[in-house]
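Exercise 3.2. Students should predict the tertiary structure of the chain below and write it as structure tokens, then compare their answer with the key that follows.

Predict this chain's 3D structure.
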Amino acid sequence: MAKARKSAVKALLKINTESAFSNITLNSVLSESDLSAADKALATALVYGVLDRKITIDYVLKQFIKTPLKKVAPFSLEVLRTAVYQIMFMDKIPNSAAVDEAVKLIKSSKESRNSGFVNAVLRNILRADSLLPTGDDTESLSILYSCPAMIIESFILDYGKDTAKHLLEESLKPAPFTLRVNTLKIGVEDFQNKIGTKTEKTKTDGGLILKSGIDIANNKLYNRGLFFVQDLASQTAVSVLNPMPGSRVLDMCAAPGGKSFSMALIMQNKGEIISCDLYEQRAGLIEKSAKRLGTTIVKPKVCDATVYDSSLGKFDYILCDVPCSGLGVIRRKPDIKYKNFAEFDSLCEIQQKILQNAVKYLKKGGKLLYSTCTLRKKENEDIVNDFLSRNNDFTLEYMHTFMPHIDRTDGFFCALITNKN
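Answer key:
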């Protein structure tokens, strides 16, 4: 376990001091280690747990550290954060073990002079009667749910305080492990018998929720292309578009490709799906996955979704899954919480440009699905309603916001638009 804690601190140090992506950083640290499967699981839990609860943890630490946290030696600070997370949120780890291992970790580091300081802070935390606020104001909710006040205010503005609390509660719960069976290669029941863990069928064709996690990279069924990971909301949104076999489909912002692959299954691998991304590397990832899955109608292409390319021609269906603030998936990507909220509004202009450009590719009578993985109405309903108010040739057929506490999905939005002419 000592190695697991050290790996977690190493990853957190890079994430918090260099603004590195958590998933990429953690995968890199774990791949370079000789940790057992159990230790990798602990390191992963610590990294994502600390990121999930960082605001709460830092609030607690500030009560027992006189100097500003930014002046605490970086390694010592991450050791303290991981220890406080274990004390407050990991019931299976004894408090004494969390403290002792933290002190050992400091003693074996270049910051060994801080071992007494770390020990004193943690012992004082253990002796404290009350660590968290009990109020219902935005600041208290920010500390209790470890979420920036601006995000909470956005949720309250759009949905009211009760729903905002539900969203905050769900943001700290484990996300369901949902996949889609590649029915081009295997039947759902046959797959369930082979996967080696209990599963629950979803309302979407081929969708399954796994009752326990699996090691994707080393899973034989995954490497044989028998499934891909995709949240239920994303699966459902694609089924709303429901592209017919033999049709032409344009996926405007396709990477990493899950929605393109789902459409290929719905289309029985008949027709054509042009899967676009702005970056060649990401388009390459779509191509690699398409080969693994055998979805031969998926054709990756590098292009800018905001710029019209007449050479692409016209399409029967268009999927417009635009870049967004991602506030519907913060339980999967906790780093999103710590981005500059003020920058989120600049996304609306890009979203409008992509949607306005997308309809230029749509055939008369064709259907377009606009979607995001955020819960901000500015990026969802407001974008769609503004578009419809300025484009009389289009009509809204369906619009839905998926709520984690209601739909058992990620937070997600989709709207189906039809070209009337």
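Discussion points: The first strand starts at residue 177 and ends at 181. The radius of gyration is 23 Å.
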